[in-house]
Amino acid sequence: MASDPTKVFSNYNAPWTAYREITGQGQYYLRCFEKHAADLDLRDTLTCLSIGAGCGESDAFLISQQMPRLQRYIAVEPDKSNVKDLVPRILEVMPKGANAELYYSSIDDAIDHIQGPVDVVLLFEVIYYILDYSDLFKRLKRLLKTGSKIIVSMCQDDLYKPVGIQHLKTWSGMADVQVIMRDLYPCQKLKEITFDSEYHMSKVNVSSLQVIACTTNVDEDDVTTFKRVVKTNENGMLEYKIDIDIITV
Ligand SMILES: C[S@@+](CC[C@H](N)C(=O)[O-])C[C@H]1O[C@@H](n2cnc3c(N)ncnc32)[C@H](O)[C@@H]1O
Q1: Residue 118 neighbours by CB under 8 Å, 6+ apart
Q2: d(Cα 238, Cα 24) in Å, to the nearest integer?
Q3: What is the distance between the alpha carbons of residues 126 and 108, in angstroms, rounded to a whole number?
Q4: Secondary-structure breakdown of the chain: helix, strand, coil percentages, each rounded to the nearest 5
């Protein structure tokens, strides 16, 4: 059973391409972006900051489909293997003449070096890895102007906690993020989107569960427990929901 925090994948290495290959989650994200293009309303984005950009699949989609005027894309990504996938993906879709900047570091180390203003901040599936995200939101304020957007996504539940797998260091729901944002930006506008994601239980084995639960400390017993405890639908799919909040400040 996972219990040693030093073996949690930590800030620096969530293997995101592998995660998405196992869960197929990317396709659900892209469908959601397509369906909610009007809610995201990214057409006039000139500068986009992506925190924990991962393998770049979501960002590349949004840049190519929904940010025709983009002039500056800033990615902060501390994981080497993610960066390897991210860079070519982004360069392929950047509008002509636009600039891409990469901070190969954690957001904590990068944030004071980033030059604003920024129109859109993407925080997809990354809040759980950031120990003090309240502090991050405070520090982000310097980069934003009236009308800037912060887009945050999180899985509604920690799927792995009920079976005793120590998951990410910090886990808190979107409700906490909303409280922090309301304190910082009393006049903010909030749009909330939820979409369904799922993956098949047959995909779960020791090595895949290590990737999707973000911990190396998984053994056969954990897999057996997980398969026993977690509810699946009649097709053997584990269903879960992902929230996206769009906060205009
Ligand atoms: C779950 S992945 C999400 C990737 C991407 N945003 C997406 O949704 O496709 C989280 C990413 O955040 C990165 N990350 C983890 N801790 C971070 C930190 N403190 N600052 C910046 N990025 C971080 C990880 O390396 C990983 O690529």
Answers
A1: 47, 48, 49, 74, 143, 144, 148
A2: 12
A3: 13
A4: 40, 25, 35
In the chain, where the domains are located: 16-159+167-200+238-248
Q: Is the pTM of this model over 0.85?
A: yes
Closest-CA residue, ligand 1 atom 13, reads 52
Phi/psi at 51 (nearest 5 deg)? -100, 120
**Residue 58 and residue 124 in contact, taking contact as beta carbons nearer than 8 Å:** yes
Containing 13, the helix (H) or strand (E) segment is none
Q: Which two tokens stand for residue 149?
A: 């957007």
Rounded mean pLDDT for each run of 10 residues along the chain, 249 residues in total = 42 75 94 98 98 96 98 95 95 97 94 97 91 91 97 88 66 85 95 96 92 84 90 94 97
Q: Is the peptide bond before 117 cis (omega within 30 degrees of 0)?
A: yes
Per-residue model confidence (pLDDT) at position 191: 98
CA of 79 to the centre of ligand 1 (A): 8
Q: What's the pLDDT score for residue 212?
A: 86
At the top level of CATH, the class of 16-159+167-200+238-248 is alpha beta
The residue behind tokens 């409700």 is 175
What pLDDT score does 211 carry? 86
Ligand 1: does its nearest atom lie under 6 Å from the Cβ of 126?
yes
Among 129, 155, 158, 212, residue to substitute to test ligand 1 (most atoms within 8 Å of Cβ): 129
